[in-house]
Amino acid sequence: MRVSALSGPSRRLRPVRAAVVALMAASACLGGAPLAAAGTERSPGKPRPLAASMSDVIPAPVSVRPDAGVTFTLRPSARIHTRGGQAATAVATYLTGLLRPSTGYALPVQAAPRGAPAPGISLLLDAAEPAVGDQGYRLDVTGAAVVLRARTGTGLFNGVQTLRQLLPARAESATVQPGPWTVPGGRIVDHPRFAYRGAMLDVARHFHPVETVKRYIDRIALYKINHLHLHLSDDQGWRIVVDGWPRLATYGGSTQVGGGPGGHYTKAQYQDIVAHAARRHVTIVPEIDMPGHTNAALASYAELNCDGVAPPLYTGTAVGFSSLCATKEITYRFVAEVLDELAALTPGPYLHIGGDEASATPHDQYAAFMNRVQPMVTAEGKAVMGWHQIGAADVAHSPGRVVQYWGLTASDPLVTSAVSRGAKVVMSPANKAYLDMKYNPQTRLGLDWAGLIEVRTAYDWDPGTYLAGVPAASVLGVEAPMWTETIVTEDDIEYMAFPRLPAIAELGWSPRSTHDWEAFRLRLAAQAPRWTAMGIGFYRSPQIPWPAPAGSVAARP
Predict the structure, then answer these.
(1) Given 172, 287, 357, 494, which residue is catalytic?
(2) Which residues of 466-484 are buried (b: 16+ CB within 10 A; e: fewer)?
(3) Are 356 and 366 in contact, with CB atoms under 8 Å apart?
(4) Which of 298, 404, 439, 507 is packed most tightly, with the most Cβ within 10 A?
(5) Catalytic site residue 172?
């Protein structure tokens, strides 16, 4: 999972030097179409923002075929047409919620007529080619209409995220802005490389309220991230109500790193987060970390300790000192009841049981603990997910098991052991994907034990070939974790996530053939006006040729 900043020099990496790359004109071939310099002119001077291009999209689509000279303009009288029942209507309602505040247009939703697409925007659950699968889409833009076709509501939703990026950046504004509202003509056919594309938010080290989590879901959905992993428990705090063990939340959740007030989610609040995520086609993956990282639980209930003595609450950042008592039967009753209540609140397929940095648990007890806990997860109708330490040879394999790799090396015997027994892997190498690592030595937030992670470091690796002995077919996807030892506010979250999160998102969605740093950095630069309109305060990496800041929210240096 991660190593504390206090874990010692033997577990640190030599800092990665942030390369400052000179502005270049670049082009790449994407689905047979040239990838233009995103949102800029190709000139040796300062990039000048232009209208959106089909080649600006992040993540890069599978196929982009612009139709030069064709532009669709959204008119005040435009309607959004749907076909496909409630699934299509729900996506249309989401789209109107995005566009009404900025355009001021009514954009009524109505059933699509048969025959040729009606003028305006059509969201259709029919006629999409089988190749797009359950998450892909086809987008056609002519002078008269925008037509999105998909096989599922999720596919339509992903297509809407692309359409958002083809509209002017001011379409993201919360107040009425001047038009025109144009979309470049052409066709995009798109579907993901990996099924799982995730972000993780640690709400245990520092508690983050419901509205912050919901806004983070809104942000990550723009880049087709489809899982949010919530780290709900750790040494510093327990963040979800468990009726059978009420002191977990009321006492174990009463503090955080540095000694602040902490907090927890009621069951209703957690369900609100789950429902909001579902409307954004994001699956919540809840994590209860065990048998280590459990001081908040141990402090709440003395009987979970082998000596029967509850330790004090903890507000530091060191790791590896706590453990549930793996030899007491009450521990397994506790785990079973916690997982049962959490499973009942969580419609998604995974329960994450942690399993990392359990150095206070003797290994034979660790294996025995995991071998008793995994069947509890599957009995709830869920698949086991855990950090890659659960891949140990003496930890039994459970059906559908997913191991999440957070290590620093390009090979790992625990992962290859798990894969050999049928496990899938979510790639989160700490020196590439951890959003809580500093960008450079001067970054005011974050840690550096895994190295410094500038944007190019986050982008320039391939999840399908990263680990020796793990074929691409065994990689379920990627995830960008954000641990919150130093992350206190929503502004902190945004500053550390942007611009690195879109880089990880592209690795999860886009074909390997589209991976090109020079093209990506230009497309990333074109996102800046959109983030400004959304109110996101982002890190202005010197590796990216950003346009000059504009609007009321300036990006922080």
Answers:
(1) 357
(2) bbeebeeebbbbbbbbbbb
(3) no
(4) 404
(5) no
How far apart are the C-alpha atoms of 501 and 480, rounded to whole Å?
Answer: 7
The first and second tokens of residue 351, run together, are 């329960």
Q: What domains, with CATH codes, occur in the chain?
A: 9-17+193-521 (3.20.20.80), 63-190 (3.30.379.10)
Beta-bridged to residue 117, according to DSSP, are none
User: Under the phi-then-psi rule, with left for phi > 0, alpha for psi from -120 to 50, and beta for the rest, what region is 314?
Assistant: beta
The number of C-alpha atoms within 13 Å of 516 and in the hemisphere containing its C-beta is 19
Which contiguous run of DSSP H or E holds residue 491? helix 490-497
Strand-pair partners of 283: 227
Helix (H) or strand (E) holding 88: helix 86-103
Give me 160's structure tokens.
């809407």
DSSP 171: G
390-414 pLDDT per residue, tens: 999 999 999 999 999 999 999 999 9
User: What angle, 0 to 180 degrees and rounded to 10, lies between the N-to-C axes of helices 86-103 and 153-166?
Assistant: 20
Nearest to 257 by CA among 220, 306, 202: 202
> Which H or E element spans position 155?
helix 153-166
Residue 213 banded pLDDT, cuts 50, 70, 90: very high
Segment (H or E) for 524 = helix 517-525
pLDDT (tens digit per residue) in 466-488: 999 999 999 999 999 999 999 99
What is the average pLDDT score of the chain? 91
- Provide the residue type at 548 as one letter: A
Select from 431, 494, 14 the least CA-distant residue to 213: 494
Retrieve residue 258's tokens.
């540095």
Determine whether 19 is exposed, middle or buried from the number of CB atoms within 10 Å of its CB (0-12, 13-18, 19+): exposed
DSSP secondary structure letter of residue 55: G
Whole-angstrom Cα Rg for the chain: 24
Sheet with 63-74, strands from edge to edge, namely: 63-74, 181-190, 137-141, 145-149, 120-124, 80-83, 109-111
Between CA 210 and CA 506, with CA 501 as vertex, the angle to 5 degrees is 130
DSSP label at 169?
G
Tens of pLDDT, residues 59-79: 999 999 999 999 999 999 999
ω before 47 within 30° of 0 (cis)? Answer: no
- Please state, in angstroms and as integers, the Cα–Cα distance from residue 215 to each residue in 155, 246, 501, 536, 553, following that order: 21, 28, 15, 11, 17
Report the alpha-carbon distance of residue 224 to residue 135 in Å, rounded.
10
The number of beta carbons lying within 10 Å of the beta carbon of residue 200 is 25
Nearest Cα to Cα of residue 395 among 366, 415, 356? 366
Cβ-count burial of 332 within 10 angstroms (0-12 exposed, 13-18 middle, 19+ buried)?
A: middle
